[in-house]
Specification:
With 182 residues, the protein is mostly helical. It contains ten helices and no strands. Helices cover 75% and strands 0% of the residues. It is elongated, with a radius of gyration of 18 Å.
Length: 182
């Protein structure tokens, strides 16, 4: 007889699965990640894994969605926090980009992860972009300027820089849009 899991236990299981899957996707790539490997890394059976996802594509989209969208509340808080526009915009970039990049920078398949995100998870990518735009617009005050900021921010990633270089670039960009620190 199987025990019914509490809501907390089910959420903890889902988090374990998503963390294990993210690690696999970032280190093995989408095509070389198997559900068997994800289940093994999460210390669960494949049957338990199928209680969270339909297939590998569904799992990937859930990982992408969770990884990006769980950061939005912190970014929204940063957008309305006390402090200068520069500090708030830098904090949004830290939460929504630099913290993610720190994990991706060391992952061998991070480039493929980003490409597959765009292909399999366009709705999640759109939600992330809209949330980011909302946060930036609340700091900069102009939706068009905020969109230009986001386009420039995306451009900083094209050569897949190190976290150190990306941090410097983000600082320059934030200064350009908010003025240098006093």
């Amino acid at each position: 007889m199987s025990q019914k899991l509490t809501t907390e236990a089910m959420e903890a299981r889902r988090t374990r699965i998503l963390d294990a899957a993210r690690w696999c996707f970032l280190n093995f790539g989408f095509s070389r990640t198997s559900l068997e490997e994800v289940a093994r890394r999460a210390s669960l059976s494949r049957t338990s894994l199928y209680q969270v996802c339909r297939d590998k594509e569904d799992l990937f989209i859930q990982v992408f969605d969770d990884w990006l969208l769980t950061r939005l509340p912190a970014a929204r808080e940063a957008a309305v926090a006390a402090g200068s526009a520069r500090t708030r915009l830098q904090s949004i970039c830290q939460v929504m980009l630099l913290d993610l990049w720190s994990e991706m920078e060391v992952a061998p398949m991070a480039g493929e992860f980003h490409d597959v995100c765009e292909r399999l998870g366009p709705q999640a990518a759109r939600r992330h972009h809209e949330g980011m735009l909302e946060c930036v617009a609340s700091v900069l005050g102009d939706p068009e300027v905020s969109l230009v900021f986001l386009l420039a921010l995306e451009g900083l990633l094209t050569d897949r820089p190190t976290l150190e270089i990306l941090s410097l670039r983000v600082g320059v960009l934030v200064n350009r849009f908010t003025g240098p620190a006093a």
